[in-house]
Amino acid sequence: xxxxxxxxxxxxxxxxxxxxxxxxxxxxxxxxxxxxxxxxxxxxxxxxxxxxxxxxxxxxxxxxxxxxxxxxxxxxxxxxxxxxxxxxxxxxxxxxxxxxxxxxxxxxxxxxxxxxxx
Length: 118
What we know:
Radius of gyration: 15 Å
Number of strands: 0
Strand content: under 5%
Low-confidence stretches: none
Largest sheet: none
Distance between the termini: 24 Å
C-alpha cells in the first residue's frame, strides 16, 4: 500500500468513525467516549498526512509514532464500547477489524522507520 492509498484509508476510517459516533444516543458515557473516539481517529488521519511534510527523518519517525499511538487509542475506545456493553459486538466488528489493521500497519512502519533512522 503506497502512502497516498494509506492517507485515503485513514481518512475514510476517520469518516466512518464520525458517522458511527453520530448514531450514539445521548448520555454522559457515549458523549465522553464519542468525543475521544472522534479525536483519536481523526488524529490518525491528520498526523499521517503530516508525515508527508516531515522536515527530517527524525521528524518523520516522531510523527509516525504519534500516528501509531492515536491508532492504538482509537482501538482502545472501540474495545471499551464493547466491554462496557454500550455497543453490540456485531455492530462494531468492521471498525474493530480496520482499527486493528491500522495499528498493525503503523506499528510495523514505526519500528522499521526507527531502525532505518539509526
